[in-house]
Every structure is written in C-alpha cells, then in structure tokens.
C-alpha cells in the first residue's frame, strides 16, 4: 500500500482527496460564516475566523508537526508571497458578502469560474514559479461549458 501512495497514481489520488476535502470544508465554512456574520457583522466574523484559524494552525503545528523544513528557511521566500494570508481576509469577507446577496449556488458558480480562469492564466504563463501548462482546446472548451452552465442556471 505504501508503494502505491508514493507512485504517480497514488499521489494523484491523495491530491484528489485533499481537493475534495478542501471543497467540502470551504462549502461548510461558507455556510457557517454566512450564518454568524448575520449576527455579528462581516468584519467581526473575518477577524474571528482568522483568529480561530490561527489557534487551530498553531495547535496542529505543535501536535502533528509542520511536515516541512520549518520556519528556518523563511528568509528564502519572496517577501511579497508572505502576505498571502491577507488574501484570506478578503476571501472570507467577499464570499460571505456575495452569498448574502447572490445565494450560495450562484455565488459559488461565479467564484469557481473566476478561479478556473485565473488558474488557466497562471498555468499558461507559469506565474509564481509554476510549471507552464500550454493552453489547449480542451481547456478553452471546458471553461466555455462552465460559462454556459452558469447562464443556463440563471435563466428564468
């Protein structure tokens, strides 16, 4: 079993499992956040979410371990990338606000579409040190189908 996990197929399966788990957690977090923000406010919620997340991250870091090289190599990272956590502030605020206005499904469809377009752009041009992945007809077709799906969903 361990050999399978280290194989290319095994790594792909683990990646799919992590992506599935992330999708599940993001969806549940959106529901939780929208509920709480109606009671305390969106910026208060954003502060709370990141505070709880910070405590949870510290707990996991000290109990499970970092699984990496630790903070010793932090000076090798581009300083601008260290501000990535600020995206989280705007993510929580924007998702919660959009769900209040658009509803869960429509807001999620828009978010997924933007994520896919930006991901294709990042892959195509190899941004942020990623390997370049050429733009293909299949990728363009897939994005087009998603846009059509959103339009069909919103037809009355």
List the helices and strands and how they pair.
Layout: H1 2-6, H2 8-40, H3 42-63, H4 85-102, H5 104-125, H6 137-154
Summarize this structure as a short list of keywords or feature phrases.
0% strand, mainly alpha, 6 helices, 76% helix, 156 residues
Concise description?
The protein is mostly helical and 156 residues long.
Integer-rounded radius of gyration:
19 Å
Share of residues in helices: over 70%
Unreliable sequence segments? none
Q: What is the count of helical runs?
A: 6
Structural class: mainly alpha
Q: What percentage of the residues does DSSP assign to strands (E)?
A: under 5%
Largest sheet, in brief, is: none
Element order: H for helix, E for strand: HHHHHH
Explain this structure.
This protein is mostly helical and 156 residues long. The protein has a domain of 54 residues. The chain has six helices and no strands. Helix 2 packs antiparallel against helix 3, helix 2 packs across helix 4 and helix 5 packs antiparallel against helix 6. The longest helix has 33 residues. The radius of gyration is 19 Å and the shape is globular. The chain starts with a helix and ends with a helix. The mean pLDDT is 89.
